[in-house]
Specification:
Structural class: alpha+beta
Number of strands: 4
Bound molecules: glutathione
Oligomer: single chain
Strand order of the largest sheet: 2-1-3-4
Order of helices and strands: EHEHEEHHHHH
Strand content: 5-15%
Length: 214
C-alpha cells in the first residue's frame, strides 16, 4: 500500500491538523489533502458530517473507506501502516515512554491552550468546545488556562534540560505535539520566557526542521 491512497481532511490553520501534517512530513509520506473551511462552518455541512459526525478535523480516510479521527489515533495508524522512521517508538520501552510524553504534552499543554483560546476568542462564542454540541464560553477560565500553559512551559524546560527531545534521545510524536502547543500558545500571547533556555534550545531545533512548515 502507498500513502497516496489515503485522504486527510484538514484545515490549514488548525493546530490539530498541523500535528498530523508534521507527522506525515517527518515520515516522508504524501496523502491526498482535502481542506475544510472551519471559518465558513464547513465542518457542520451535511457532506462533512457524513464523513466525521464529530464535526472536527483532522480526519483520515483509508482506501477502503474506513474513517479514523482523533490525532493520536491517526498517528498510531500511520506509524503502524508505514513503520519506516517510527515516531511512536520501535521498542516496547520507547513506545511506552513516547506515549507517556505525548499524552502529557497533549493534556497539560495543548489542551490548556485550546481551553484558553476557545473561551477567549469572540469568533468562537457559543462554540467553547469543538464538536457536535454547542457550549457557551466561560471567560473567567482563560486566566487559569494561561497559568496552566506557563506551568507546562516551565515543566517542559526542566525536562529539556535533561534530554535533547521531549521523550528522550530521539525526535518523536511528543515533540510534534509540544511544538504545535508552543506555536498555538501565541494566540494567548504566551511565549517561551527568555530564562527557559533548554526549552528555547529545543524549540529552535524542532521548529527549523523542514516538517515544521507543514
Ligand atoms: N480530539 C480531536 C480534536 C479535534 C479538534 O478540536 N479540531 C478542531 C481544529 S484544531 C476543529 O475541528 N474545530 C472545529 C470547530 O471549531 O467547530 C482530535 O484529536 O482530533
Amino acid at each position: 500500500m502507498t500513502s497516496d491512497m489515503l485522504k486527510l481532511y484538514h484545515s490549514p490553520g488548525s493546530p490539530n491538523s498541523r500535528r498530523v501534517r508534521i507527522f506525515l512530513a517527518e515520515k516522508s509520506l504524501t496523502v491526498s489533502l482535502v481542506a475544510i473551511d472551519l471559518g465558513k462552518g464547513e465542518q457542520h455541512s451535511e457532506a462533512y458530517r457524513a464523513i466525521n459526525p464529530r464535526r472536527v478535523v483532522p480526519t483520515l480516510v483509508l482506501e477502503d473507506g474506513t474513517v479514523i479521527g482523533e490525532v493520536p489515533a491517526i498517528m498510531r495508524y500511520l506509524d503502524e501502516a508505514f513503520p519506516e522512521k517510527p515516531l511512536l517508538g520501535a521498542t516496547p520501552k520507547d513506545k511506552g515512554l513516547i506515549a507517556m510524553w505525548e499524552r502529557r504534552a497533549e493534556l497539560e499543554g495543548f489542551a490548556a491552550v485550546m481551553e484558553g483560546v476557545r473561551n477567549k476568542i469572540a469568533r468562537l462564542k457559543g462554540r467553547a468546545i469543538a464538536g457536535p454540541h454547542d457550549y457557551e464560553q466561560i471567560p473567567t477560565l482563560v486566566e487559569r488556562s494561561v497559568l496552566r500553559v506557563k506551568n507546562f512551559f516551565a515543566d517542559l524546560n526542566e525536562r529539556l534540560a535533561q534530554v535533547p527531545f521531549v521523550a528522550g534521545e530521539r525526535y518523536s510524536a511528543a515533540d510534534i505535539t509540544a511544538l504545535v502547543t508552543v506555536d498555538f500558545a501565541k494566540a494567548l500571547e504566551v511565549s517561551v520566557p527568555p530564562d527557559h533556555t533548554a526549552l528555547k534550545r529545543w524549540y529552535d531545533a524542532v521548529s527549523t526542521r523542514a516538517s515544521a512548515a507543514a
